[in-house]
Amino acid sequence: MKMSATAMVAAAMLAMTPAAGAAELKVGLAASTTSMDPQFYVGGPNSAMARNIFDGLVNQDDKQQVQPALALSWTVVDDRTWEFKLRPGVKFHDGSDFTADDVIASIRRVALASQNSPSSFAAYVSDIAEVTAVDPLTIRITTKVPTPLLPNNLSRIAMMPAELADTPTPGLNAGRGVIGTGPFKFLSWAPDDNVVLERFDGYWGDKAAWDKVTFRVFKNSSARVAAILSGDVDLIESIPTADARNLAASDKLTVVSVPGNRIMYLHMDQGRDVSPFAAGPDGKNPLQKMAVRQAMSLAINRQALVDRLMDGQGLPAGQLVPEGYFGHAPDLPAPAYDPAQAKTLLAEAGYPEGFTLTFHASNDRYPNDSKLAQAIGQMLSRVGIKTEVVTMPGSVYFTRASAQEFSLIMGGAAIETGEASGVLGPLLETFGPKAGQGNRGRYSNPEFDKALIEARATLDDGKRQTLLQTAMDIGMKDEGVIPIFFLANSWALKKGLTYQGRSDGYTLPYYVRQAN
Fold first, then answer.
1. CB–CB of 476/332 below 8 Å?
2. 482: helix, coil or strand?
3. What average pLDDT does the structure give for the chain?
């Protein structure tokens, strides 16, 4: 019975402590896990925590490329059928065997976990028509349509014991059935405070270096920095940009910074002849003209934004996925800052004296978002676009932006699947009931849509890569959105510890090591 070890979770685990001399890692998190159900809510803090306890059939590496995990290999049988060979000898934390039945039940459970979810995992399994067991270590998945990204999608689905197929989210949040195959076992969770895990010695991979891991939540950035400086924790994530250089200069700490998977970008209203906050002398919307959008891009000094406002914690961007991601177009560098050419383009577009614009942005969603908006507004004003900047809390801003109440907005998008369609589709595909749901500027180009849709149905990796690069090239040259920079992910560790860093920003103690 796979749930036999969970009956006393809520009470007994709080009393557990590591053996004398055991290695413990203390981690300072920037945000709290909101559920211990790994299939409930697609959100960075939840997904990161789940990866410590649960595996997928495939996992994502530090650059979000899929790699074997509970599935050793997978093959395409035909354009709608995949076969996965499961890793033998894998144990769940309760000692039971991982088999094909657990895969079937885990995929089926996503629908249950999606109930009342603010952002569910349902989209990652929506193309699956049927999952069958060929034998205990082989499964076949039939999809409704050709689905080349099935392995990427399955990297987001935690594998759980079959007995949990009908266990609702509240049960896991109470500590019942938090059982995976990952490198650490669940001990306890205090919402907005801490999560405690212990090493799983039966893990199918190399054993973790840590007997116990305690995650503590420090939503206040200053408190998080103080915790690492005082030695209360061994590692913190999400270093505030203002503290990055000071922490890096400390002889007691090591700072790790890598380009992240979140692109900061501008969306311009391109779907309306008259826009609420952008008007030329004739009252019409200047943002519909490509030359105007090109001028705006050239007016932005991306490197200065990264250096001065982000303290180097970013990478200027000319497209929507960083180098190393599937679909990255090698011939789309970040545009050079060229205010003179920006003024020339504005004149050629019919606005030699510029036009008026109000730029809306959040002030509490992304690092330095309000300061970034002000700086970008000033850069636009310098080339003649008379720009007023208005910022507001994300809880208000995103709802209004989605309702098209604004003309120019700033957003951030993470590449959850590790490849380009995961961001091209939401931001640039022609808006419709099942497409372009994040396309708040209503950009539309049939050639872009054609390349993206064909890529989604192309199983050949080489051809799909070319199609995605084609779509990226079209969208960027049209200035469908203006990419600004990729946010960096950063960590500070005590000297003597190493961590490679990850583009998804996850803090995974399994990869924290003692330096040699």
1. yes
2. strand
3. 92
